[in-house]
Design brief:
It is found in: Cell envelope. The chain is α+β, with helices and mostly antiparallel strands. The protein contains five helices and twelve strands. It has helices at residues 14-29, 77-102, 106-138, 144-173, 177-203, and strands at residues 34-47, 54-57, 64-65, 70-74, 205-207, 212-216, 230-247, 259-264, 271-278, 283-284, 298-306, 319-323. The relative contact order is 0.19.
Length: 326
């Protein structure tokens, strides 16, 4: 019997495949430029004004709060005591300034005049004794050392008289303007320190500076955070924004105010937005924004403001893809 030969396989035409690949490449080339990133909200960190223990927490994470609402409270005992001490110091400086402005008392002036009169009498007695001793010394009836001591005592008495007269004159002329200026400066410094401590005491009641959502409370009831540590972090603003990394090849076509379409992971459809800022200095693309050839290129950090009403309830941290229509 003659052997049957298997039918030859039909050759697959290669031209349609090449045409399809060219069509796909053409479609890819028409796709709008895009950038990857995450959804963010404006954040406000409220630092600890003092290293005090947290004695009260009024909110929870994820809670929406109004501007001025109290978030938590720190222990005020030590701050109140320091404020009282500073207020007492300011009062002391104020009384010292009032004393300088009032000048010397009449009793002080009377005492200075009486002291001057007493010294003048002592000086006259010393001068008379020296005058009586001088001729005896010339006649060598007394020792020369006695004459010298009498002369020194008379001169010393005259010096005390001059000092007492100058002290009386100082009291009569009153307080110098420079001393009053120093007293005013000391009072102003004491009051400023008390005012600063008052502000610190008020900050122990940590309140929301703007309306927003409590994103994080790093410390719990009873914790003692160091000065400057964030006690609460708020998400504020009317709507979130997309923080994306614009690849270097399309940077020249992206500008502030330009319209954009934002695709949020897990949400159908695109949201409208516009470019509000873009950095002028490039940075290396982070790992989650690497796509194809962009892995070896620089990128520019940009912020895309979402203008859709539907974007106001979106949480932070969601991956987004932003397209810039041509």
């Amino acid at each position: 019997m003659p052997r049957r030969t298997a039918p030859a396989a039909c050759p697959i035409p290669r031209r349609p495949l090449a045409w399809l690949a060219a069509l796909l490449l053409a479609g890819c080339s028409d796709a709008p430029p895009q950038a990857l990133g995450t959804l963010e909200w404006d954040r406000i960190a409220l630092p600890a004004p003092a290293a005090e223990k947290i004695v009260r927490v009024d909110v929870r994470e994820g809670q929406r709060v109004a501007a001025g609402a109290r978030l938590l409270q720190l222990e005020p005992i030590r701050t109140e005591a320091e404020l009282q001490a500073l207020r007492a110091r300011a009062q002391q400086a104020g009384e010292a300034l009032a004393e300088l402005r009032a000048g010397p008392r009449t009793e002080q002036l009377a005492q200075a005049r009486a002291n001057l009169a007493a010294l003048q009498a002592q000086a006259a007695d010393a001068q008379g004794y020296y005058a009586r001793l001088q001729p005896l010394g010339r006649q060598r009836l007394v020792a020369a050392s006695d004459v010298d001591r009498a002369r020194a005592a008379a001169e010393n008495a005259q010096g005390q008289v001059r000092a007492a007269r100058a002290a009386l004159l100082e009291l009569e002329r009153g307080t110098r303007p420079e001393q009053i200026a120093q007293g005013e400066a000391a009072l102003a410094a004491a009051r400023a320190q008390a005012a600063a401590q008052t502000a610190t005491l008020e900050k122990l009641d940590v309140t929301a500076p703007r309306a927003g959502v409590v994103d994080s409370l790093p410390y719990r009831l009873g914790d003692q955070a160091p000065v400057g540590a964030p006690l609460a972090i708020l998400l504020v603003g009317e709507a979130p924004y997309a923080r994306v990394y614009v690849p270097e090849p399309i940077r020249a076509n992206v500008r502030v105010g330009q319209a954009a379409r934002i695709h949020v992971d897990g949400r159908e459809g695109a949201l409208r937005g516009r470019v509000r800022t873009i950095r002028s200095e490039p940075s290396f693309t982070p790992y989650y924004a690497l796509t194809g050839d962009d892995a070896a290129r620089l990128s520019y950090l940009a912020e895309i403001e979402l203008t859709d009403e539907a974007a106001r309830d979106l949480p932070a941290g969601l991956p987004v893809r932003v397209e810039f229509p041509r």
